[in-house]
Amino acid sequence: MDAKTLFSLGFDASRLQRVKHRIETDIAADLYDGAALIVARRGEVALRIVTGFADRASGRHLAADAVFVSFSVGKQFTNALVLNRIERGDLHLAQQVGDILPAFRSRGLREITLFQLLTHTSGILSAIPSVPVETLISIERLADYIGQQRPEAAPGTKVNYSIIAAHSVMAHMVRTVDGGKRSFTQILREDLFEPLGMHDTCLGTRPELLNRLCPIVAKYTEPGMFYPADVTGIGHVLMLDGAEIPAGGYLTTIDDLHRFAQMLARGGELDGTRILSPRTLRYCAQNHTGAKPNELFSYTRDTRGWSPYPANIGIGFFVRGHGVQPGPMSNLSSPTTFCGWGAGSTCFWVDPAEDLSFSFLSSGLLEETYHMERLQRLADLVVTSLID
């Protein structure tokens, strides 16, 4: 895009080019392998970058239609569908999970609400469950397993990000109120992805996408949130035939992720298709966890010397909020900025105050805290390119 057009969108063109330079410098230094990024403002694409490798080991360069494993940025696809069901009247935020799923009517689980699942305050299992693979990849089996476990904390007392469990429970709730005839994969395709024109996004795998898939390669050797082998291992599980892991087992492309972000940036509607109400997004994209830290990141005190900081989790999204702290969004962004992001490689954020969106997918996974820092630096560069 030429400098004059970028100026009309409120960008300094030379400053915005710093984003591309930063990414290419990092890839040349072998910090990660490739990246695809789209920045948009007022519904117009201001910056599109596709650079580096899909697979550095084989020399395969990243293509514009490259397919990526979503990791936890896919949680927001699940969350959007849950919020859509709230707007339909099939679910409601204060609803106890046991109202829908009988396994959650036992003592200790009965008080867990949908709101708590969406804000990671339910107390259910945070870590990846130690269960057979056939249970891990099945929404119904995993939800039933979680329904047999005592919570790790009393519901509502702590923020402890649930890596996989909470979203299988929510997906099972959606499927149940849908009547149980459609799989969650089918519900997503028919009610979210196809209406939004996200034709290369799916839960699990599709054979026609696999030849464009970026392999999961860890670019770090020291353990962090995950051991490198665990990251690559879960990636293989996500690709098993019939796998449904609604917390992150999606495939997507940069254009599809951009369309999803634009739906959110446009108040829940894109190209005549409305998924969510603007009121829903305004309410959900607020800090609903107060000053509580995210217990999942307690390891960073020892590994990175980070002091505890507020989780800033909304209803289904992370929220920028106030103060200076680590995270995938710029500290210079508007407080109402909200996002989703995934293990070492993926992110989108939307700044409603600036009508600005950022969509990012990368190959070659970083350790989680370094991924956060990478994203924050790129977000800083985007935000400080604005001149109006």
Task: Kindly report the oligomeric state of this protein.
Answer: single chain
Write down the CATH topology of the largest domain: Beta-lactamase
Fourth-level CATH superfamily of the largest domain: DD-peptidase/beta-lactamase superfamily
Strand segment tally: 12
Class from helix and strand fractions: alpha+beta
Number of domains: 2
Count of helical regions: 13
Distance between the termini: 18 Å
- SSE succession: HHEEEEHHHHHHEHEHEEHHEEEEH
Overall shape: it is globular
> Roughly what percent helix?
25-40%
- Percent strand equals 5-15%
On the 0 to 100 scale, the average pLDDT is: 96
CATH class of the largest domain: Alpha Beta
Instruction: Characterize the biggest β-sheet.
Output: 7 strands, antiparallel
- What strand line-up does the widest sheet have? 3-2-1-12-11-10-9
Which spans of ≥5 residues are poorly predicted at pLDDT below 50?
none
